[in-house]
Amino acid sequence: MATKPSSGLRLKLEEQLTCPVCLDHYTNPKTLPCLHSFCQHCLEGLPLDKKNETYYLSCPTCRHRTKLPEEGAGAFPVAFHLNDLKEMYSLTKKTADLSNPQEAICSDHGKPLELFCETCDTVICVTCSFRNHKHHEYDLITDSYTKHCQKLRECLSPVEGKKEAVKKVLSALAEREGEIRERGEGVLEEIHEMVEEMMNVLRESERKLTEQAKRITDDKLKVLSEQMKSAEMSLSVLEE
């Protein structure tokens, strides 16, 4: 028998399919350049900033400022991955209902709920099948459950491939981050060494200029002292 879909998976899908603005399932989801997604009508309701005849909106999640297309929010890329998740969520819900129907007996006819109406997405009894669901597409719950589980697996298969691709991208980005950090640290070290070298040159220049200034000052003071002594001697002779 096929494995029942995990309630944990449904909860995760439910969370992924909830728009952070309206807190409801996405309706016509659009993706912003910052890669956060929102309902189109939620984006259309966001406040806009205008600069030089151009309108901008801020992402409600990360506050990244994005230019609004001339055609409006509807021109942002469609979030196809969310549409895929919506289909997956629908399949997990169906398989969950089929594997564990809430009511084992039909409340209208008192008969076992052993059929699943594909047209109405609900479990029904035999009487329902030829009364309320006449001409609808339905099958035994066990057969329908197996079929939907297979569809779910087919739906999950490309998701697994995408997940692996995303993992590779994340790994490459992490590696790139390490390279950037390492290069940044190297640049900082180079700057430190360059500044230290410049400081040493300046200190040496300061020492030489100080010595030169002191020497010139001493020489001038020596000359001045000799001139003063000569003048004093001349004054002494004149006074005699």
TrEMBL record:
What domain of life is recorded for the organism? Answer: Eukaryota
What does UniProt give as the signal peptide span? none
Record-annotated B box-type domain positions: 101-141
**One family name in Pfam for this protein:** zf-B_box
InterPro entries, per this entry?
TRIM45/56/19-like, Znf-RING_euk, Znf_B-box, Znf_RING, Znf_RING/FYVE/PHD, Znf_RING_CS
Q: Which residues form the RING-type domain?
A: 19-63
Under the GO molecular function aspect, what terms does this record hold? zinc ion binding
Keywords, comma-separated and alphabetical = Coiled coil, Metal-binding, Zinc, Zinc-finger
Zinc among the record's keywords?
Answer: yes
Name of the protein: B box-type domain-containing protein
